[in-house]
Specification:
Oligomer: single chain
Strand content: 25-35%
Order of helices and strands: EHHEEEHEHEEHHHEHEHEEEHEHEEH
Number of strands: 15
Number of domains: 2
Protein name: GNAT family N-acetyltransferase
Distance between the termini: 37 Å
Shape: globular
CATH topology of the largest domain: Aminopeptidase
Organism: Mesorhizobium retamae
CATH class of the largest domain: Alpha Beta
CATH superfamily of the largest domain: Gcn5-related N-acetyltransferase (GNAT)
Structural class: alpha+beta
Length: 367
């Protein structure tokens, strides 16, 4: 009979091979990936023997599936809640055992946690989650895109398939400059100083960011209960995403008194699409933080930014010429109606740092 059990260090080479075959179109250095998975899933603050990551094992003892779990302590109405952040979920040879994925998911959801959620569910996994009463959260499940330099953006996207296309990017700068002179935000990006001229932004250290982040979460009814040590660990792990480019971590402050009003974290290089992991702000300052972030990316000659929505940001994104598309789903499962209501009403903080977006599994080469 197939078996589902907690992952061990001996499973990691097989899991790394599954990851390369099923989730990466380009090769990775398997030993480096296995070492990172050991750090991520079996050591440090992401390991909890009561909420372990799981493997699906065939009758012959070979690993055919994996579900990576990040334990997370959350707070709701003054009470501590245990959450299982459901990350990498993969099963191979589904035609040989079509129910392996369903068994693996059911086993994880039967754990002692108060709630479980994922932010990276594809269509196949979403169908499995729906069968076990998982609730898809539309307002958390959209990808947003803001184009800054349209010609460079087209070249960058073409380079994903034909790398030589990147060589023409410098030749397209006059077309991007023309788009900016037309002052049509749909055709490019025109900085609007009036929206954020009373604020400034600057690079921030991981230590200071770890102290600031909890202050921006107080507005959420259901939120992670992170201490500074845990946040420093996550931000340190998030330093390197070779496929996504340089990490940018900046705090936004009021010019009048230097008070912090928000923070943003994204990855990207000049001429490349930037990927936003997190936008945080005080209530009512969401638009200011978004504007400062767009201005910063524009100053670095980046063609566009993309990221994951959160309900708290949607209102501020309206009117800023941001497009939305669905690529994967954020899904939650809980036996507690009050927690489900916090999610469906948009009063829960998840995605990004409260997910797996900070890990090197998304965006690094392991070479």
């Amino acid at each position: 009979m197939p078996e589902i059990r907690p992952v061990t260090a001996q499973d990691l080479p097989a899991i790394a091979l599954l990851f390369q075959r099923l989730l990466r179109s380009e090769g990775v250095e398997l030993n480096a990936l296995a070492d990172y998975m050991k750090t991520l899933f079996l050591e440090g603050p992401n390991y909890d023997p009561d909420l372990p990551s799981k493997v699906h094992v065939r009758d012959d003892g070979t690993v055919s599936g994996f579900f990576g779990i990040f334990p997370l302590v959350m707070e709701y109405a003054g009470k501590t809640m245990r959450a299982a952040v459901c990350g990498t979920f993969m099963v191979e040879a589904r035609e040989d055992d079509p129910f392996a994925g369903a068994r693996l998911l059911r086993d994880v959801l039967a754990g002692p946690q108060d709630l479980s959620f994922t932010e990276t569910s594809n269509d196949l996994a979403t169908a499995l989650w729906r069968r076990v009463n998982g609730h898809v959260l539309p307002d958390y499940s959209l990808e947003w895109l803001r184009i800054l330099r349209p010609a460079s953006f087209v070249a960058d996207r073409a380079a994903e398939r034909v790398p030589a296309a990147r060589l023409i990017t410098p030749l397209l700068r006059p077309f991007d400059a023309l788009a900016q002179r037309r002052k049509s935000n749909w055709m490019g990006y025109v900085p609007e100083a009036s929206r954020a001229d009373a604020f400034s932004d600057a690079d921030v250290s991981e230590d200071e960011a770890a102290e600031l982040i909890p202050t921006f979460l107080r507005q959420f009814a259901l939120r992670p209960q992170w201490d500074a040590e845990r946040l420093r660990y996550m931000l340190a792990e998030a330093r390197q995403k070779a496929l996504h480019g340089e990490r940018v971590l900046r705090v936004v402050r009021a010019r009048s008194n230097g008070a912090p009003v928000g923070l943003y974290l994204y990855y990207g290089d000049a001429g490349r699409l930037g990927r936003v992991v997190q936008i945080l702000s005080l209530p009512g300052r969401e638009g200011t933080v978004i504007d400062r972030m767009l201005n910063h990316a524009d100053s670095r000659n980046m063609p566009a930014l993309r990221g994951r929505t959160q309900p708290a940001l949607l209102s501020a994104m309206m009117g800023r010429k941001i497009a939305f598309v669905h690529a994967s789903s954020t899904i939650v499962h809980s036996r507690h109606p009050e927690l489900m209501e916090a999610f469906t009403s948009g009063r829960a903080f998840i995605n990004g740092l409260a997910g797996e977006g900070w890990t090197r599994l998304i965006g690094d080469r392991f070479a």
